[in-house]
Amino acid sequence: MNADSFIVSMIAMPEIDAYYDEHSKIDTLIRRGGRYALDDLEKNVYARKVDSLLNIMYKAILREYATDTLFIRAFKNSQRAWLAFRDAQLSAIMPPRDHSFYGQIESFCRDSFFALVTQRRIEELLPWYRGIDEGDNLCGSYKVNPK
To answer: How far apart are CA 29 and CA 11, in angstroms?
Structure first.
């Protein structure tokens, strides 16, 4: 699966649609030449875009569930914990070292891992964002979409 096609097929929202329209140039580069076809600047742009998408989804979920204060508190705690996990995970993948250790690809690799970890979080937020189908017995705090 290419770097961000998993999100494109799952989400429909004006802000997110605009994100992908603007992002199609990078997506095209990825499909044409693989991840390593991107230079550092373009990869940094991609990592920032994925982070922006996560923030859009997070805020949309907060708006959608605003009346459920117990959920909102737990969800915000979850996001804070995830941010700490993300930072620790990135440090484990690429421990802080002298820049000569990683060479010229350091920022490219950091941005790639940042985007990957963030994409995984986006996938985790999708059930809250999209809801789940009516009849799913494991609904928890997810909104239920009527059939």
So the answer is: 22
